[in-house]
Specification:
The protein is mainly alpha-helical. Among the domains are: 222 residues, no CATH class; 67 residues, no CATH class. This is NADH dehydrogenase subunit L.
Length: 629
């Protein structure tokens, strides 16, 4: 595994080369360098995965945890130190596959989508930095190294969301994403410091924790604060507000953020710290489950009425990340047969979701490239013009809806089975959300490819199929989406030594499929035809609810009110007045008093020797008289 260091070094070198020397490169050269480097990273990741999973197991049947590289950066005590290195275990190796695959497809796709864009070289440099940051995060050997790359992921997302820096909307979106996640990351950092102090280590597993007196009672707080950081990165309610606005970046960036990098970082954090959650903070895991469930329901409700296709997919991502968080939260042990099913299901859904969500976003980019609009009103009937995009998009919709044999069915079924194992109420709540997912995705599908064709918009920009550079990633990801469900995923990440592979709970699977089919049938009935009387009638009868959902239930307006009307006006403005008039006034007074006094007495330092002699003589005489008296 010595070559694994190249998985981090190659994209970093690509970032430096294209970022510094890009101004002297052509667009084609910069794109080829970035893509070839990611191709090499993908090959190294696949080779690493093959070698790791084909290696002999330990005596208890588990996969070994390998650390090919590790060195101490900042030592504090014998057990507490900041290390940098590479850790390979089942979930980190799985993430190497996910990140490198999706990133490579995005690099190839961007050749066609970003062709002719100003800043093309800068775009590819930022892509390399983004990929390197996420790769460094998933192979971190300790929580502090994870935090370093965690912040690099935040910086990279800021740069890419604000790529069109001449657009005010892109500037606002990048700042919003950066600020919201920084607030969340403050909680993450405080949690790391508490964990390091009371745990005596920055390692991931309970076996390495040297808990000091009273530390066990503080670890739930530390882990809860770490989850706050994860909730910010993964856009969990109420820290979700940055993700829909992140659509202002180029669409391939949206695919990378939503599928393989930023938003899955929070899920990976909880999964990485999972042994600690189970051992010391099981109640915090239950909180994770209910936060994830509410987020999934809220986001699905909003997605049902959005008209911007990228916003539909953005809220879909928030909902699906909620599914993954719920799956982790409903676990009660590490044993997959006794309460640990959700851990397997969450990682499996992270893997399958990355592929079909990247396919959905790249498909959306292909559609936007053809019609020059994000709004469904400018679409309709596109299946006649874009057959490859149509069929690959349909495959992704079937996968996320949970229709067999597509990959989303297998991973979603595992999550629902884990939820029913945890509590029937949670199981039915998530089943309803899964039904909503099938409904809004096929509402989106029919609005784009069927429905009423906007002939006026199509006359201005005749729709056409995208070039091969864009359709090849669509076809590749579609094939992966069709076959990923048959991977014996749980067998790879099982941590208790037992052979465990994905299995189906017949009652859960049949129920979920039937409900998904009913939801798709309702969406077909309402949105397939050019006229949509049922949808229009419902929108009129539930006008306030429809408007509230379209406006994201006014959560952004609440944030605006709290920040501008309360924090800025009632707190920041008085503080600013005090600072400007009292603090600044006091120091201005000191400066004025000093200047005035110096003006009055500066004559004493005139530089005239005669004056100095006269004053000296007068002073001497005055002193003699004083002594004489």
């Amino acid at each position: 595994m010595e070559l694994t260091i190249l998985i981090l070094l190659l994209p970093f070198l690509s970032f430096l080369l294209v970022g510094i020397g890009g101004k002297w490169m052509s667009h084609r050269t910069a794109g080829i360098i970035g893509t070839l480097v990611l191709g090499a990273v993908a090959v190294l990741s696949y080779v690493t995965a093959f070698q790791y999973f084909s290696a002999p197991r330990l005596e208890d049947g588990t996969f070994a945890t390998l650390i090919p590289y590790n060195f101490t950066w900042l030592p504090f005590t014998e057990t507490l130190h900041f290390d940098l290195g590479i850790l390979l275990d089942p979930i980190s190796v799985m993430m190497l596959i996910v990140i490198s695959t999706v990133s490579l497809m995005v690099h190839i796709y961007s050749f066609g989508y970003m062709k002719g864009e100003t800043g093309f070289q800068r775009y590819y440099a930022f892509l390399s930095l983004f990929t390197m940051s996420m790769l460094g995060l998933v192979v971190a050997t300790n929580i502090f190294q994870m935090y370093l790359f965690w912040e690099l992921v935040g910086v990279s997302s800021y740069l890419l969301i604000g790529f069109y820096y001449t657009k005010p909307a892109a500037i606002a979106a990048s700042k919003k994403a950066f600020i919201v996640t920084r607030f969340a990351d403050l909680g993450f950092l405080i949690g790391i410091l508490i964990y390091g102090y009371y745990g005596g280590t920055f390692g991931f597993t309970p076996d390495t924790v040297s808990i000091i007196s009273g530390g066990a009672s503080m670890l739930p707080l530390a882990l809860g604060l770490m989850f706050v950081g994860g909730a910010g990165k993964s856009a969990m309610f109420p820290l979700h507000i940055w993700l829909p606005d992140a659509m202002e970046g180029p669409t391939p960036v949206s695919a990378l953020i939503h599928a393989a990098t930023m938003v899955v970082a929070g899920v990976y954090l909880v999964a990485r710290m999972f042994p600690l959650f189970i051992a010391y903070a099981p109640d915090t895991l239950h909180m994770v489950a209910w936060v994830g469930a509410f987020t999934a329901f809220y986001a699905a409700s909003v997605a049902c009425v959005q008209s911007d296709i990228k916003r539909v997919l953005a809220f879909s991502t928030i909902s699906q990340i909620g599914f993954m968080m719920v799956a982790l939260g409903v676990c009660t042990s590490m044993d997959p047969h006794h309460g640990g099913l959700g851990y397997m299901a969450s990682m499996f859904h992270l893997f399958t979701h990355a592929m079909f969500k990247a396919l959905l976003f790249l498909g959306a980019g292909s559609i936007i490239h053809a019609v020059h609009s994000n709004e469904m009103s400018a679409m309709g009937g596109l299946r006649k013009y874009m057959p490859i995009t149509h069929w690959t998009f349909l495959i992704a919709c079937l996968a996320i809806a949970g229709i067999p044999p597509f990959s989303g069915f297998f991973s979603k079924d595992e999550i629902l089975a884990a939820c029913f194992q945890y509590h029937p109420v949670m199981g039915w709540v998530m089943t309803v959300i899964a039904a909503m997912t099938a409904f809004y995705m096929f509402r989106l599908y029919y609005g784009i490819f069927w429905g009423k064709e906007n002939k006026e918009a199509h006359a201005a920009h005749t729709p056409h199929e995208s070039p091969l550079a864009m359709t090849f990633p669509l076809m590749f990801l579609a094939v992966v989406t069709c076959g990923a469900g048959f991977i014996p995923f749980g067998h790879f990440i099982s941590s208790n030594g037992e052979s465990y592979s994905i299995h189906l709970d017949p009652s859960v699977a049949i129920t979920s499929v039937v409900i998904a089919i009913i939801s798709i049938a309702i969406a077909t009935w309402m949105y397939k035809n050019a006229k949509q009387p049922v949808a229009d009638t419902l929108a009129r009868h539930f006008k306030k609810l429809h408007k509230a959902a379209y406006n994201r239930f006014y959560i952004d307006d609440i944030y605006q009110f709290v920040t501008h009307k309360i924090i800025f006006r009632c707190i920041s403005t008085p503080i600013a007045w005090w600072d400007r008039h009292v603090v600044d006034g006091f120091f201005d007074f000191l400066a004025w008093a000093t200047n005035t006094t110096s003006d009055e007495i500066r004559g004493l330092q005139s530089g005239q020797v005669q004056q100095y002699a006269y004053v000296f003589l007068c002073g001497a005489l005055a002193l003699i008289l004083l002594l004489a008296l």
